[in-house]
Write a structure and sequence with these properties.
Blueprint: H1 2-19, H2 22-31, E1 35-39, E2 45-48, H3 50-56, H4 60-63, H5 78-89, E3 94-101, E4 107-118, E5 124-133, H6 135-157, E6 161-165, E7 171-174, H7 176-185, H8 190-200, E8 205-206, E9 209-210, E10 215-221, E11 231-242, E12 254-264, H9 266-321, H10 326-350, E13 360-362, H11 364-381, E14 385-389, E15 397-399, H12 401-421, E16 428-435, E17 439-446, H13 477-487, E18 491-494, E19 502-509
Helix pairs in contact: 9-10, 9-12, 11-12, 12-13
The structure holds flavin-adenine dinucleotide.
C-alpha cells in the first residue's frame, strides 16, 4: 500500500519535472546566487553564470573556452588537484577548499563542489562546478582559534592553577599550572579539592553538588596527607557560554561553567603557623615566668604562715593562762605576729595576677598540635614515640586559648619528665581527642612509672610532688592545671584503671 503510494508520488514528480520548460532551468542557473560553471571533460569553461563573474572578476566572455585553472593560485598543493581529478575520473563528485586568484590578482578561498554530468550511457560529458567565497568565514574561524590560543597562552602564563568545570564537576579545560599540580600530586586534584571545599565551606554545596555560583577566595587545605600541608586560596567564577547549536539559533540558551582558580598559599600558611608557634611560645614562656614567681612567693608565704600560726597559738596560750609578767611576752608575740603578718601581706601583694583572657572559639586539635610542635625537640631528644590520634571534625569549644595551651604544656611536660625519669627504653606518648554529647575529651597517656593510687588525688594539692623537690618541681603544676580546668567548668582526673603508666583525662564542655 505504502510502496504503491511512493511509486505514484515518484511518477507524478517525474511528470511534473518533464513538464517544466527547459527555460526555467536556464534562468535558475543564470540567476542563482552561487557561482556556477560548466566545463567540458578537460575543464574548459563552456558556461559560467553572472555570480561566477561577480566572484572571479572575469566577464562571461573572458571565461568562455578558458581552463578552470585560470583561477588557480599556485599555492594549492598538487596533491589536492590529484585527489580532485582522481575523484572525478571515478565519476564521483568532489568537494574541497582551493585558494583562487581573481582577475585583479586578489586571492579568495573557494569552497568548491564539482559534479560530473553523465549522459544516458553513463559517460562524463561535462563537469558542473559550484563555488562560494568563504574567505571571511575562514578568517573568522581562524580569529576565534587565534583568540582561543591567546587565552590559553595567557592562562598558561599565570602562576595560579585554573580549571574550568561543568555542573557535574568534570573538568573541561585547565591551564599549565593546574596540569603541573596534577603531575606533582600524581592524581587529579579536583575530587580532593571539592571534598576539602565541602568540609570547610559546606554552604557552597547542595546535595553533594558544588553550586554553580561565583565565590570570593577561600582558604582550603587539601585533605590528603601532604607534607608540607597543601593550602590553596580558591575562588570560583561562573562563566556562561552561548549555545551554538542550531536549536539555539532563535531560542538563546547558555551552558554554565565554573572557573576555579587555585593560588598555592602553602608557603604563606607555613610562615603563619611558624609565627603562631613563636608567639604561643613567647606567651607560654611569659606564663611560665609568672607562674614560677607565683610559686616561689606562694612557697615563701606558705613557709612563713607555719611559724606565724605557731606564734598565734603560743599567744593564745599565754593570754589564756594569764600568768604574772605575761603581758611583756604577749606584747612581744604581738609585735612578731604583726611583723610576720605584714610580711605575708606584702608577699601576697607581690603575687603577679593572672593574664586576663577572653573566651574564644578554640580548635583543640590545632592547639594540641601546636603544643606538640613546641615540644618536638625535647620529644626527639628523649626518643619518645608520639601517637597522635585527633578526632577528625572535632567540634570547637569556647575557651581561653592561652590558658588551655598552658594546661596542655604542663601535662605534656609532666608526661615527658616522668618518661625521662623512668629507666624504660620504651617511651610512648599517646594523645587522643574525642567528642561526646556535652564535652570534648583529651586523653594524654604516657609510658612512665605512673602515679600510685594513693597519690592520684593528692597530686592536685599545692606543693605536693612525687619527685625530688627542686627549683623546677615545687608541686604546683597540676594545681595550676586543675585551676585552669575548673575555670572552664571542666574535669581533670588521673585514670585509676590505667596501670602501665599515667593516663590523664581532661574533659571540657562546649560552652
Ligand atoms: P593542471 O596541469 O591543470 O593539473 C594538475 C593535475 O591535475 C595534473 O597533475 C593532472 O594529473 C590532473 N589533471 C588536470 N586536468 C586533468 C584532466 N582533465 N583529467 C585528469 N586529470 C587531470 N582549479 C582551481 O584552481 N580553481 C578552481 O576554481 C577550479 N574549478 C574547477 C571547476 C571544474 C568544473 C573543474 C572540472 C576543474 C576545476 N579546477 C579548478 C581544476 C583545474 O582544472 C586545474 O586542474 C587546477 O586548477 C590545476 O591547474 P594547474 O594548471 O596547476 O595544473
Amino acid at each position: 500500500m505504502c510502496e504503491s503510494k511512493d511509486l505514484s508520488t515518484a511518477l507524478s514528480f517525474k511528470a511534473a519535472f518533464e513538464q517544466l520548460p527547459p527555460e526555467v532551468f536556464r534562468l535558475a542557473v543564470e540567476q542563482a546566487a552561487v557561482a556556477i560553471s560548466i566545463t567540458d571533460t578537460r575543464a574548459r569553461i563552456v558556461y559560467s553564470n553572472p555570480s561566477f563573474s561577480r566572484v572571479t572578476g572575469y566577464s562571461q566572455q573572458e571565461l568562455l573556452g578558458k581552463n578552470q585553472s585560470i583561477l588557480s593560485y599556485k599555492v594549492t598543493p598538487k596533491i589536492v588537484y590529484e585527489s580532485l581529478w582522481g575523484q572525478l575520473q571515478r565519476k564521483q563528485p568532489w568537494s574541497g577548499l582551493l585558494v583562487n586568484r581573481r582577475k585583479d590578482g586578489s586571492r579568495y578561498l573557494a569552497d568548491l563542489t564539482i559534479t560530473p554530468v553523465l549522459n544516458a550511457q553513463g559517460e562524463t560529458t561535462h563537469y558542473l562546478g559550484m563555488q562560494r567565497d568563504v574567505t571571511e568565514m575562514h578568517q573568522l574561524e581562524h580569529q576565534v582559534m587565534n583568540q582561543q590560543a591567546l587565552i590559553e597562552r595567557a592562562l598558561d602564563s599565570t602562576q595560579a592553577a585554573m580549571v574550568m568545570v561543568q555542573a557535574d564537576l568534570q573538568p573541561v579545560m585547565s591551564n599549565r599550572s593546574y596540569k603541573e599540580l596534577e603531575k606533582h600530586l600524581g592524581y587529579p586534584p579536583l575530587p580532593e579539592l571539592c571534598q576539602a571545599l565541602k568540609a570547610q565551606w559546606p554552604n557552597l554545596f547542595q546535595d553533594d553538588v558544588l553550586l554553580n555560583r561565583s565565590f570570593a577566595p577561600l582558604e582550603v587545605r587539601l585533605s590528603g596527607h601532604h607534607d608540607p600541608e597543601l593550602w590553596f586560596s580558591c575562588s570560583g567564577e561562573v562563566i556562561e557560554e552561548k549555545d551554538t547549536s542550531a536549536d539555539a539559533f532563535y531560542q538563546k540558551s547558555f551552558t554554565r561553567y565554573l572557573l576555579l582558580t587555585l593560588q598555592d598559599i602553602s608557603h604563606l600558611k607555613q610562615q603563619q603557623k611558624q609565627l603562631q608557634l613563636t608567639s604561643l611560645q613567647a606567651l607560654l614562656s611569659e606564663q611560665e615566668r609568672l607562674q614560677s614567681v607565683r610559686e616561689t612567693l606562694s612557697g615563701a608565704i606558705y613557709q612563713l604562715e607555719r611559724p606565724l600560726n605557731l606564734i598565734n597559738a603560743a599567744a593564745r596560750l599565754v593570754s589564756r593562762r594569764e600568768q604574772p609578767g605575761s603581758e611583756e611576752l604577749l606584747s612581744l608575740l604581738g609585735e612578731v605576729q604583726a611583723a610576720g603578718q605584714e610580711t605575708v601581706n606584702q608577699l601576697t601583694r607581690c603575687l603577679p595576677s593572672d593574664i586576663r583572657e577572653e573566651d574564644q572559639v578554640v580548635n583543640l586539635n590545632q592547639l594540641l598540635q601546636s603544643s606538640l610542635s613546641l615540644l618536638t625537640p625535647r620529644l626527639l631528644a628523649a626518643g619518645v614515640i608520639v601517637d597522635w590520634q585527633p578526632e577528625s571534625d572535632l567540634p570547637r569549644i569556647q575557651a581561653k586559648p592561652t590558658s588551655l595551651a598552658t594546661l596542655f604544656k604542663q601535662l605534656l611536660d609532666n608526661a615527658l619528665d616522668a618518661m625521662q625519669a623512668s629507666r624504660s627504653d620504651q617511651r610512648e606518648l599517646q594523645i587522643t581527642t574525642r567528642s561526646y554529647k556535652e564535652f570534648v575529651e583529651v586523653t594524654l597517656q604516657d609510658s612512665g612509672p605512673g602515679i600510685p593510687p594513693s597519690d592520684q588525688l593528692r597530686v592536685f594539692e599545692p606543693f605536693f610532688t612525687t619527685r625530688q623537690q627542686s627549683d623546677k618541681h615545687l608541686g604546683m603544676g597540676l594545681t595550676l592545671a586543675q585551676e585552669i580546668v575548673n575555670s572552664h567548668q571542666g574535669l581533670l582526673e588521673v585514670d585509676p584503671e590505667f596501670t602501665s603508666g599515667c593516663r590523664i583525662k581532661v574533659q571540657l564542655p562546649y560552652v
